[in-house]
Write a structure and sequence with these properties.
single chain; 184 residues; alpha+beta; Alpha-D-Glucose-1,6-Bisphosphate, Chain A, domain 4; two-stranded antiparallel ribbon; 5 helices; 28% helix; globular
């Protein structure tokens, strides 16, 4: 199976790079992802549930980042086992190119599947892969485009003697989108 696609991200290249390396954010954006845990330098153990046609299975696998050229590109090597459902393995080349205040992410995936998943047929496998990629990029783009939490509004406090009210402002805190994402 081969898949090539480009996606416009509404953030500068460095922000996109940091987001692609934020495991908490990725866990929220990858459909069916249950966990992403470090497993050595630039390597991770993953668990996710995926459905391909009539076959639904829990996959456990490993991904490793290679050929890292921050903040421009890397290659993801991956393999996963889904028990009786089969397996998947392959690589994905991911590149980021700045385009004004935005970034164009391009990826090229080359993967092989085996077991029951392979018996389903390449059209269903390709359709399921494209659907997962579309769901990931929808979630990922929404997370990147999410506005920072609203600034604190001035509050009206009643004076202790029942007189005039005073306006006090809460201290403004600068919060990054990653802090906002990790709390949701």
């Amino acid at each position: 199976m081969e898949m090539n696609q480009s996606q416009r991200l509404p953030v500068p290249q460095q922000v996109a790079w940091e987001a692609l390396n934020d495991t908490a954010l990725l866990k929220q954006c990858i459909p069916g992802c249950e966990s992403i845990e470090p497993d050595g330098e630039n390597a991770y153990q993953l668990a996710l549930t995926a459905a391909v046609g009539p076959v639904k299975a829990r996959f456990k696998g490993r991904m490793a980042l290679q050929d890292i050229q921050a903040p421009d590109s890397y290659t993801i090597q991956f393999d996963g086992q889904g028990g009786a459902a089969g397996f998947g393995k392959g690589s994905a080349r991911v590149t980021l190119e700045p385009d004004g205040d935005e970034t164009v992410l391009t990826y090229a995936v080359n993967a092989q599947v085996g077991g029951k998943i392979a018996q389903i047929g390449s059209r269903l496998v390709d359709a399921a892969a494209r659907k997962m990629a579309e769901a990931f990029f929808t979630r990922f783009t929404e997370a990147l485009a999410a506005p920072a939490p609203e600034e604190a509004e001035p509050q009206q406090d009643a004076a202790p003697d029942g007189g005039e009210t005073q306006t006090t402002e809460e201290p403004k805190r600068k919060r990054s989108w990653t802090a906002w994402i990790s709390k949701s």
